[in-house]
Amino acid sequence: MCQLYLDGRWTIPKTAFVSTYPPRRCGIATFTHDLATAVGDREIVALHLPDGPGPYPVEVRHRIRADIQADYRSAAQALNECGVDVVSIQHEYGIWGGEAGSFVLDFVRQLRRPFVATLHTVLRSPSPLQKSVLAELVDTSAASVVMSRAAATLLTRAYGVDPARVDIVPHGVPNLPLVAPRVAKLRLGLGEEPSILSFGLLGPGKGYESVIEAMPAVVEQFPTARYVVLGATHPEMLRREGEAYRHHLEERAATLGVADHVHFVDRFVGKVELGVWLEAADVFVTPYPNLDQIVSGTLSYAMGAGKAIVSTPYAYAAEMLDEGRGRLVEPGSHGALAKAFVELLSDDGLRAQLGRLAYRHSRSMLWPEVADRYRAIFARVTAAPTPAAAARRVGAFRG
User: Fold this and answer.
1) CA 25 to CA 29: how far, in whole Å?
2) Same domain, 220 and 354
3) How confident is the model at residue 82, as a pLDDT?
4) Residue 342 or residue 395, greater confidence
């Protein structure tokens, strides 16, 4: 465990995590909970929607109402005074208030503690404001963390960030056993039918239509095959449009004659149940059309469960499934998806081989390993703050 030597004794840096947080249902909230729990000594500053969930768990000491600009400055001041050593900021434009999430800058400009920015999105073609927000955030951070080499390369080439100030730490995954799918299918009350799985908050832009389009060809070869779409509709979409998108997918499956082969599990599942669904899948698929996507928690979890994975070659998948750890297919091609599914469902040995390769690669992604790397970064920046952080502290003393 990484520690900091202060006043003749070793201490663990106390960390404040600023992010969305459970019970809010979003991938970054789940990520932050798992990371903060694994790191240890921590408190949470929750980015909170006006009609957001509650109550929060005891570790949530502060809330920032996402649309109230003054909350960002007051929360930063509270952290300046409450004895935390380092602040971990989870950044994705949509979770912060202001245009292009610009209220994050109100927070960091007031902060007098070193902070580490974990970047969940690095856009290849940002708007001018998106680029300036990310540039200032990274420039004033003590360190920035990304989850793939592709993201680090993009950050240094497109945003001009010094590579020495970028750390690559993989997305964490739970330590699931490598089990035969039939065992988990029994636990879920499923039969022996071949199972293809996607999971995550439901919304457009994930390419599920392509998988549904592929199912007639799959069912022709495997008449009992099933595609499971696991997850509740994204809360923001639910507020705006209700279940229109889910109904669209259901109608498309019916039109293609595969309604009985496309199964929607319309709820947000906990980690234990999610683990069982992953273990029960014969094939996992992320058919995302956005090839610039730099991280996918769902893909990471599937690797951690030792799944045979089919994916479009978005940036994160191309990197994680390299060296034969999965199958990559062209985006938007239901024919290519169908061919990959049929190949894998026809060959038990091939599925097992791909699953073992993915599982082996994911061992460095287990949450205790990831937490150790974050603790090392937190200890490093706490012991030797960057010039930008030092300048902020000097400014505070002069003020």
Assistant:
1) 7
2) yes
3) 87
4) 342
CB 167 within 8 A of CB 144: yes
339 and 371 in a single domain? The answer is no
Q: Which domain holds residue 22?
A: 4-171+367-398
> With contact defined as beta carbons under 8 Å apart, do 77 and 8 qualify?
no
Is residue 176 one of the residues assigned to a domain? no
The CATH number of residue 21's host domain is: 3.40.50.2000
Helices (H) and strands (E) in the chain, counts: 16, 15
Percent helix, percent strand, percent coil in the chain, to nearest 5 = 50, 20, 35
- Residue 7 confidence (pLDDT) above 60: no
Euclidean distance between CA atoms 27 and 38, whole angstroms: 17
Percent of the chain with pLDDT over 90: 81
Mind spelling out the 3-state secondary structure of 146-159? ECCHHHHHHHHHHH
Task: Decide: 305 and 327 in contact? Cβ < 8 Å.
Answer: no
Q: What radius of gyration do the chain's Cα atoms show? A: 22
User: What number is the average pLDDT over the span 63-88?
Assistant: 95
Which position has the token pair 């690559």? 168
pTM listed for this prediction: 0.90
* 186 and 290 co-located in one domain: yes
What letter would DSSP give residue 366?
B
- Tell how far CA 232 is from the center of its chain: 16
Residue 322 lies in a domain: yes
CA distances from 267 to 210, 255, 260, 274 (A): 22, 24, 19, 11
